[in-house]
């Protein structure tokens, strides 16, 4: 009974948070309905292949490559260990993870907004709703972006807590998250100045407080100041606002210039320096260089241009305010091409943000005793945003998935501003309401993005193979007619292996043919797929090919014999014509005539004047050819009869 009582008490304490998480989780699944991941390709498939072929150490701690992201690789190994061959579970996993991140952001928003729960919930929902989440939700590699974002924002919040509450533990956590983030994705190494800036601001606030205490020590007003501070703390506590000691300085009774636990600032600096050095030493030891790799196999040192970096930075800033720029395959749709009502909503949301900033600045000026504290926090937030933008601007292009962390930080800034906006904090909820239709519109056009068409193709490939045939697919050979999709050799060899649970599948390699006529016969252990470019997918044409072969071709046999009435169907190669070589083994009287139709068109009769005759057929390259024969003769005294009609002659074809 005691245990049940404690569980009930704990549930009562946390029921609001649990309700918020349930709402965010349900919202995450609602807005991402229809997103599917059934077939892996490119980076996702390569990562899976490494998991399937390498040991744990080789997978998590790769040596000598261009990247060393052991924290991400460990998380990916654990995900694959639990999900196994269930590729379709990856999207639900991503949705749950992003919902947990949104819930974490909600709790941070509540803290920095002085307890505004409805505002925080609206902004957490705005985070989930963002069009920038396409990669986090729709790709296995989205795990990397989600974890990196989570660690980076956690780092920022840890530094914020240290600056405002002087809790050394928060600063240690921030350093730990910096280490983890750097080995989730190396671009987060750029956040080192945030740690140093937080240390400077934390020490500065402590020094200012020390001077303030020394100035007021022994003065008649000191007791009144302390009483006012106590009353302010009491009011803040009742209203859900942060305590004065947590916002402005270390608070009465705390040693100025030190953390709540008495940790020296020099020790904190040493921890940060040691963390930064350790990261670089590990990188140098594992990949042999300190220079980060760029996008698409490039190197930052080789492709960096200041003019391009500035342009990319502006693009990312515009993305945060809903103004897409760049080619469609990177931004979904540029702002200028969007429907007028969508542009209006985006501009209206920008106007709301502008008004919110104005009201916040007025509130900040009125809060004279804490102007510097608010200024420090703003500089801290903006430095984080600037560094994240900068780290994503030095490569060859801007992808929206890199801006997602900047957007999350911008939402944190908006939540913080509402702490000084009074009733006008409702503007944050209005902002979330305005962007809902716009973000929904862009989500509906995710198919414009560079990865979406290919993902649809491989989803379709999975549907037409493993989803349709199950494990029986490994007893069949899969053929794909043509290859305009340019499937790589690695993909052809690896795609089906993902679903081979015991690794004993006999036929896991995809094979390509120019035409089904490349196959002499269609057997039950074959699956033939045709490309469907209009739908970015594949079609299982096995039964169609079987039926066509049966209906179109008759009276003809593999050894060249044809009956009195016969049809031969095939696809011409890359030549302009064919020569039929016909052999009749009987006595030639001049009365042996064969009528020939080419694709339904009557051709000149073939009149035998010799046992061996040649007959030219005009044919365009890569054209399906249907030849119908109607002969008035047959092989007399033949010992074999294969069909309803009698054997007539032997036909072979050669290029003209």
Automatic annotation (TrEMBL):
UniProt keyword Membrane present: yes
Chain ranges passing through the membrane: 18-35, 89-106, 143-163, 190-206, 263-282, 344-365, 377-398, 404-436
Q: Which UniProt keywords apply?
A: Membrane, Transmembrane, Transmembrane helix
Residue ranges, annotated region (Disordered): 218-258
Domain of life, per lineage = Bacteria
In its UniProt entry, what is this protein called? Glycosyltransferase RgtA/B/C/D-like domain-containing protein
């Amino acid at each position: 009974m005691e245990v049940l009582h404690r569980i009930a008490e704990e549930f009562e304490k946390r029921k609001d948070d649990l309700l918020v998480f349930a709402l965010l989780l349900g919202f995450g699944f609602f807005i991402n309905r229809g997103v599917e991941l059934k077939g892996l390709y490119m980076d996702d498939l390569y990562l899976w292949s490494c998991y399937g072929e390498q040991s744990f150490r080789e997978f998590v701690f790769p040596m000598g490559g261009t990247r060393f992201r052991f924290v991400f690789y460990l998380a990916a190994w654990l995900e694959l260990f639990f999900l196994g061959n269930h590729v379709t579970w990856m999207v639900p996993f991503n949705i749950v993870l992003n919902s947990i991140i949104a819930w974490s952001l909600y709790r941070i928003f509540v803290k920095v907004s002085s307890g505004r729960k409805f505002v925080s919930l609206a902004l957490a929902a705005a985070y989930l709703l963002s069009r920038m989440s396409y990669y986090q939700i729709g790709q296995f590699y989205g795990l990397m972006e989600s974890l990196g974002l989570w660690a980076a924002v956690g780092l920022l919040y840890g530094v914020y807590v240290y600056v405002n509450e002087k809790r050394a533990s928060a600063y240690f956590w921030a350093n730990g998250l910096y280490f983890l983030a750097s080995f989730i994705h190396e671009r987060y190494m750029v956040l080192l100045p945030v740690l140093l800036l937080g240390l400077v601001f934390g020490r500065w606030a402590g020094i200012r407080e020390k001077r303030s205490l020394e100035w007021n020590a022994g003065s008649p007003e000191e007791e009144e100041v302390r009483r006012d501070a106590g009353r302010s703390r009491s009011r803040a506590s009742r209203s859900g606002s942060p305590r004065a000691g947590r916002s402005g300085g270390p608070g009465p009774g705390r040693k100025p210039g030190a953390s709540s636990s008495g940790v020296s600032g020099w020790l904190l600096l040493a921890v940060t320096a040691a963390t930064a050095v350790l990261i670089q030493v590990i990188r140098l030891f594992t990949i042999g260089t300190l220079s980060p790799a760029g996008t698409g196999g490039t190197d930052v040192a080789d492709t960096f241009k200041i003019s391009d970096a500035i342009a990319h930075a502006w693009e990312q800033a515009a993305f945060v305010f809903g103004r897409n720029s760049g080619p469609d395959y990177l931004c979904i749709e540029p702002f200028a091409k969007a429907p007028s009502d969508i542009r209006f909503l985006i501009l209206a949301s920008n106007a709301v943000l502008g008004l919110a900033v104005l009201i916040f600045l007025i509130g900040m000026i009125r809060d004279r005793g804490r102007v510097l504290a608010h200024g420090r926090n703003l500089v801290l937030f903006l430095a984080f945003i600037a560094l994240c933008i900068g780290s994503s601007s030095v490569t060859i292009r801007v992808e929206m998935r890199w801006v997602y962390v900047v957007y999350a930080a911008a939402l944190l800034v908006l939540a913080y501003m509402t702490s000084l906006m009074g009733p006008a904090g409702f503007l944050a909820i209005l902002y979330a309401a305005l962007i809902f239709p716009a973000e929904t519109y862009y989500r509906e056009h995710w198919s414009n993005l560079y990865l979406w068409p290919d993902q649809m193709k491989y989803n379709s490939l999975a549907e037409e193979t493993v989803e349709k045939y199950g494990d029986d697919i490994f007893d069949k050979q899969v053929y794909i007619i043509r290859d305009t999709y340019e499937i790589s050799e690695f993909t052809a060899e690896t795609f089906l292996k993902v679903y081979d649970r015991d690794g004993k599948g006999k036929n896991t390699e995809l094979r390509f043919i120019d035409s089904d006529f490349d196959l002499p016969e269609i057997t039950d252990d074959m699956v033939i797929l045709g490309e469907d470019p209009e739908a970015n997918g594949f079609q299982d044409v096995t039964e169609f090919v079987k039926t066509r072969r049966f209906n179109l071709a008759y009276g003809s046999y593999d050894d060249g014999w044809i009956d009195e009435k016969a049809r031969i169907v095939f696809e011409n190669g890359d030549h302009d014509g064919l020569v039929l070589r016909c052999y009749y083994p009987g006595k030639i009287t001049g009365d042996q005539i064969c009528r020939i139709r080419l694709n339904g068109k009557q051709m000149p009769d073939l009149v035998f004047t010799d046992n061996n005759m040649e007959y030219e057929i005009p044919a365009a390259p890569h054209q399906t050819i249907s030849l119908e024969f109607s002969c008035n003769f047959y092989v007399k005294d033949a010992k074999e009869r294969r069909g309803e009609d009698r054997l007539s002659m032997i036909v072979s074809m050669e290029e003209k």
